[in-house]
Amino acid sequence: MTKYEQKTKHTDQSVIEFIEAVDSPKKREDAYQLLKIFEETSGFEAKMWGPSIIGFGSYHYKYESGHEGDAPFVGFSPRKAKISLYFATGDTEREKILERFGKHTSGKACVYINKLADIEEEVLKELILQSITFLRKTYPGY
């Protein structure tokens, strides 16, 4: 059996250099605004996770399958098509909060937005805090 190698790891890549490399000036502007919101709300300094995720804080998870690793509490990535926002998965509270969030789509782990102007900033802050609270309860010690 081969050991699973975690793809998304904390790296020493510069967050600012990553944001500066974003093609769209509007997305770049939104990324800087998100950086400020996530840092101020989470209380964590931004770090790059893998080649394209800006993450805040970290926790260690271990599944019943034995798979374990580290991940950021919350994060975002200004991708070409949409901006991906990363919050805790498995939190039922998230769905309730998202009802007040504004224009978005969501997958299992991500919430996607076109631009910052489409969403409610105060609700984003609530999602960030809720995600960190949920993960700290689920994986105590972090």
Major β-sheet strand ordering: 1-2-5-6-8-7
Calculate the mean pLDDT score and round it. Answer: 90
Could you tell me the strand content as a percent range? 15-25%
**What's the helix-strand series?**
HHEEEEEEHEEH
How many E strands? 8
Helix-and-strand structural type: alpha+beta
Number of helices: 4
Residue share in helix: 25-40%
- Which segments are poorly predicted (pLDDT under 50) over 5 or more consecutive residues? 1-5
- Would you give the CATH topology? Aspartate Aminotransferase, domain 1
Q: What count of domains describes the coordinates?
A: 1
CATH class type: Alpha Beta
Rg, rounded, reads 15 Å
Commentary on this structure:
- The protein is an alpha+beta fold and 142 residues long.
- The protein has one domain: Aspartate Aminotransferase, domain 1 (Alpha-Beta Complex), CATH 3.90.1150.200.
- 35% of the residues lie in helices and 22% in strands.
- The chain has 4 helices and 8 strands, in the order H-H-E-E-E-E-E-E-H-E-E-H.
- The protein has a 6-stranded antiparallel sheet with strand order 1-2-5-6-8-7. A two-stranded antiparallel ribbon has the order 3-4.
- A hairpin with a 3-residue loop joins strand 1 and strand 2 (53-56).
- Helix 3 runs antiparallel to helix 4 (121-138).
- Residues 1-5 have low confidence and may be disordered.
Please give a quick description of this structure.
The chain is α+β, with helices and mostly antiparallel strands. Helices cover 35% and strands 22% of the residues. It has one domain (15-138): Aspartate Aminotransferase, domain 1 (Alpha-Beta Complex), CATH 3.90.1150.200.
